[in-house]
Write a structure and sequence with these properties.
The structure is a homodimer.
Chain A lengths: L1 E7 L2 E6 L11 E10 L3 H5 L16 E7 L11 E3 L10 H4 L23 E4 L2 H4 L1 E2 L8 H7 L5 H11 L7 E5 L3 H12 L4 E5 L3 H9 L4 E3 L4 H11 L4 E6 L4 H10 E9 L6 H4 L3 H7 L2 E4 L4 H14 L8 E6 L3 H9 L5 E5 L1
Parallel strand pairs in A: 8-9, 8-11, 9-10, 11-12, 12-13, 14-15
Antiparallel strand pairs in A: 1-2, 3-4, 3-6, 3-15, 4-5, 5-7
Helix pairs in contact in A: 5-6, 5-12, 6-7, 8-9
């Protein structure tokens, strides 16, 4: 089969690789029909995190079930399914409590499971991983594009909101205008936030934030100025802050704009925070809770899907470019150059 | 009046200083009858944090009200009162939501308010700061010694438990066998924890932890070995971890023993954590919530006092040495040498 493969910083190639096969009785093979390129893929693409050359890439698959093991009960061949960025068994302590990302099986896309940006992937745990799209919507392309972000960024933005304790009537600050930040705005609105202040660096993205429910936007390029502006708007800081970037500077802004006693929900993979040193003293002095982490999006998929299918949730405007499998390298380039917020891939 | 004054690392002197006077209509002057030396005082005593020579020290006063301003309604001269380590106005947003430590007035003991380890202190905000001991117990020395820890360490240990989300039937791990850690054990037991694992370095203190309700103790000197032992005892980590030290190494142990999806409640003033770098990646990967901070002990005082007066809570065994005002320098020495867990001072 054909699949996108990491060859080194700035180098994604489309190559012939071995097609995954279902070996375990609980597994499933999926023909990928839709997937995406993730902001987190840019870390290795830019050489900022290590990745082994030759590895398959991509972790947001949606597609048609081709084959299942004989113990699989929740899906069957021909079903349209989506899969979170994390594979989960569905049966361990952590899966059962909804923390699918801490599944004890520790399986992930790539390797012999295949990367999401390829023609096929397999999961060893179909029932614990896959989310079936109801048959009625299984071939509705517009609906599928609205559902695809549930594999990662929409669930991740939601996790930021949940972790930050956002509820009805609240004021929420969303740090970051990437796909996760924008989905965070949608999530905060969905949870009933009254004021949503989106903080970012790109006017075009902040316009989408406004479409998604942001009541105010802050676009100061300088982080200290941005934090100052948010503190002005909130009369001293917000009780609910969603850190949707992962960079040390973004976490600093989050801490700067959190009100004493508030909560920061963070979902961006931390980069540089250890080296720079998290401002623990400020968290301590102000009793600010730091919650969140890698988002257990599998736990949120059904609820979010219900809202997408019900017509009240549509994250698809984050896809500003669409490519086929051959276009994946170009898609990485476009995201790297910030010419696209998020790239939809139709293999 | 006579008061303990910081003269430099390792040097506490008893000197004549100006007696505070009540100037504001909301203020009160207190003749200190009981106070204590705090583990946090050792940071400046050991020269590890900056402090201006000549400053009054101490922040855990209990005593008799001598005079009040004409707007004070909650106490009057002759009342026995205790005061938290933080002065609070009682009327700002943060005081009203129970986060007294973030009071916008930003007043503290020392300076013209007088340090707790002296003959007199004053608070500019009597109604917002002072907690009246019911008249029936106002001269009961044993009761007063049980109540004195509510000025700081008992409320702080309780804040660790609350921040870690400890509830009935839970397994809680308490890192630290100092006065706060021991009070944390009491607090966890009071909140209904079923298993309480106390982690420390001193057999004598861990014996008190057992008296206070610890069901198991871990005394490995090496941090990694201690963490490993806790993970064994908890089959992979605890959902509720109370970090009651503040040192970077203690926070590392707390993160190491937290179960994915768990909560760390931290109450020790962070020292060295910034330099060493908090292990944010582990928190992120495992969705561990970091909550807590400087404890708003004023908010907990009434509830904890009710239990002390009702006979179900007694933190006084943490006082293993008693001195008068002249003995305060000796008290610091004893705590510095770990010959006393906490020193009671009767000026």
């Amino acid at each position: 089969m054909r699949a996108a493969v990491y060859r080194g910083p700035g180098d994604i190639a489309i190559e012939d690789v071995e097609k995954p096969t279902v070996e375990s009785p609980t597994g499933a093979l999926i023909r990928v029909t839709h997937t995406a390129i993730c902001g987190s893929d840019l870390w290795f693409y830019r050489g900022k995190t290590e990745k082994e050359p030759g590895e398959g890439v991509g972790h947001e698959p949606m597609g048609i079930v081709e084959a299942v093991g004989n113990e699989v009960t929740s899906v069957r061949p021909g079903d349209r399914v989506l899969a979170p960025f994390a594979i989960s068994c569905g049966e361990c302590e952590f899966c059962r409590k909804g923390l699918y990302t801490s599944c004890v099986e520790d399986e992930s896309w790539g390797g012999e499971n295949g990367g999401g940006q390829g023609e096929y992937v397999k999961t060893p745990f179909a029932d614990g991983t896959l989310v079936k799209v109801p048959d009625r919507y299984a071939d509705d392309q517009a609906t599928l594009e609205k559902l695809l972000p549930l594999t990662d960024v929409m669930g991740t933005g939601h996790h930021a909101a949940v972790s930050a304790g956002v509820g009805a009537g609240d004021t929420a600050v969303v740090i970051g205008d990437g796909a996760v930040g924008l989905c965070g705005v949608l999530a905060a609105q969905r949870l009933g936030a009254e004021r949503i202040i989106a903080v970012g660096h790109h006017e075009d993205r902040l316009e989408i934030a406004e479409q998604f429910g942001a009541t105010e936007t802050v676009a100061e390029r300088d982080d200290a100025a941005a934090a100052e502006r948010v503190r002005e708007l909130t009369y001293g800081g917000a009780n609910h802050v969603m850190e949707c970037v992962g960079a040390a500077s973004a976490m600093d802004v989050a801490i700067d704009v959190a009100r004493p006693g508030g909560r920061i929900g963070y979902v961006g993979v931390p980069h540089g925070v250890e080296a720079a040193g998290l401002d623990v003293l400020s968290l301590f002095r102000d009793n600010i809770t730091l919650a969140g982490g890698v988002a257990p999006v599998r736990d949120y998929a059904e609820d979010l899907m219900a809202d997408v299918l019900g017509g009240t949730l549509d994250p698809s405007p984050i896809f500003t470019k669409t490519v086929d499998l051959a276009g994946v390298p170009e898609g990485y380039e476009a995201m790297d150059n910030r010419e696209a917020i998020k790239v939809l891939v139709k293999p």
